[in-house]
Amino acid sequence: MTAISTRLATSADLGALAPLFDAYRQFYEQAPDLVRAEAFLRDRMQKDESSIIVAESSDADMLGFCQLYPSFCSVIAAPIVVLYDLFVAPDFRKSGAGRALMLAAEQHARQRGFARMDLTTAKTNVSAQSLYASLGWQRDAVFYAYNKSC
Question: What are the DSSP calls for 85-102, one per residue?
Answer without folding.
Answer: EEEE-GGGTTTTHHHHHH
